[in-house]
Amino acid sequence: RVFRINSFVGGRISQDNVRLGDTIRQGQTLAVVQNLDVAKIQAQYIHELHQNEIDIAQAKDRLALAQRNLARERRLLNEGISPRKDYYQAETDASLAKTQYEGQLEHQVHIKAEGKALLGAYGMRPGGVHSETIRTGTPVSAPRAGIVTKKNITLGDVVTSDTTLYEVADLSRVWL
Question: Would you tell me how many other CB atoms lie within 10 Å of the CB of residue 78?
Fold first, then answer.
């Protein structure tokens, strides 16, 4: 019932929370590994989400304008002032604007789901679009509870995903 704990990513150890002999619990953050790939993913997520918010606002304004124009053309058509083709064009413009607005809203859902999945793979949650901080650290969590029997890292070490950071033994049942 001995298991080894590795990091999902390579990088520099920026935080080391346990010592040799410590009892750890499942899900506890043992260390944090700084990784530039995580920072790039988070920055890209924030950028895409921010751009999408701008696109949504623009699409919403275009939809409002198209709907006002449609109402105007409907009124002019009913009064016999405007030709039917202008009304049809306004109706098409309103329909296209609505489709574009709804598409941008749907795109936002996909951006958030992708960010959650990508950052979740590194044990992180995506931040808000207005976040001024981009986190570079990936937490290393304990998959099970146990006692740290071997520790192969210190603060500042550079590790890869193949590096065993800790060796942990589940001593809840011991045979003598």
Answer: 10
H helices present in 13-164, as ranges: 36-78, 84-120
**The pair of three-digit structure tokens given for residue 44, joined into one six-digit string:** 């890209």
Q: State the Cα–Cα distance between residues 13 and 34, nearest whole angstrom.
A: 6
Q: Which residue has the higher pLDDT, 175 or 44?
A: 44
**Do 146 and 24 contact (CB within 8 A), yes or no?**
yes
Q: What is the pLDDT of residues 65-100, one digit of tens each?
A: 999 999 999 999 999 998 999 999 999 999 999 999
CB-based burial label for 8 (10 Å; 0-12, 13-18, 19+): middle
Chain centroid offset of residue 81 CA = 53
- Measured between alpha carbons, how far is 6 from 10 in angstroms, rounded to an integer? 10
Q: What angle do CA 118, 119, 125 make, to 5 degrees?
A: 140
SS in 3 state form for 29-47? EEEEEECHHHHHHHHHHHH
